[in-house]
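Milestone 3.1: sequence recovery, worked example.
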């Protein structure tokens, strides 16, 4: 498995609205699966921020896959069951979610096939991915992205892996012009400015979510959210 991992940008932990948005979407998927206790896997868990939150808020066990040794130990120190490779995870998962990870993996179809094999019948996968190839920037290169996705691309790859796609839509429509401005600024370092991030998270991201809901989620966004099911 060729998995470069992802950089754990500490600055992103400050993006409260963004993180709450992701957690809320995962919880919504959990609610639609069953009322019983579920087995959940966070693939590419970094230091376990999302896994710990989902475990506490859903009252379900969450295990993690993280290839970086330091981040793997951080997950374990939080009391999370953590593995360095998905092959070590037991089968019969109810949900596998992965946030901004698949783009770091060269052979992403192979990983999607592994997801399919680890899920029980009726189990689901939830992915949050960078969208729009024209937004590929120095930031993508710095953190090891192989690609940004189109809806057509990720739907096709999920179907190749065996999944039936339940929902696929864009997220963060205002992130598109924001990223274009970042690219036009000539920033070659790929760095994120902390103050700019906080302003975007507090003032712009809530508006972006509103615009997604009323119109843009079917047409364009900086990210893609997709849910697939194993039939």
């Amino acid at each position: 498995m060729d998995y470069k991992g992802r950089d754990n940008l500490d600055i992103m932990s400050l993006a409260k609205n963004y993180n709450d948005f992701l957690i809320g979407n995962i919880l919504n998927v959990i609610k639609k699966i069953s009322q019983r206790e579920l087995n959940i896997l966070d693939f590419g868990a970094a230091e376990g921020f999302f896994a710990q939150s989902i475990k506490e808020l859903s009252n379900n066990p969450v295990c993690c896959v993280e290839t970086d040794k330091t981040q793997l130990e951080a997950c374990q120190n939080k009391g999370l069951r953590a593995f360095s490779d998905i092959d070590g995870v037991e089968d019969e998962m109810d949900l596998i979610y992965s946030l901004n990870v698949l783009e770091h993996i060269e052979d992403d179809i192979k990983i999607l096939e592994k997801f399919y094999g680890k899920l029980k019948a009726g189990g689901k996968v939830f992915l949050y991915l960078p969208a729009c190839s024209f937004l590929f920037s120095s930031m993508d290169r710095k953190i090891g992205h192989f690609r940004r996705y189109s809806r057509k691309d990720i739907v096709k790859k999920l179907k190749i892996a065996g999944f039936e796609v339940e929902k696929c839509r864009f997220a963060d429509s205002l992130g598109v012009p924001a990223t274009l401005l970042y690219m036009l600024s000539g920033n070659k370092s790929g760095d994120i400015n902390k103050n700019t991030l906080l302003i975007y998270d507090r003032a712009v991201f809530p508006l972006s979510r509103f615009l997604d809901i009323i119109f843009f989620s079917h047409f364009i966004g900086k990210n893609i959210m997709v849910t697939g099911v194993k039939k």
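Residues 1-9 have pLDDT under 50 and may be disordered. The chain has eight helices and seven strands.
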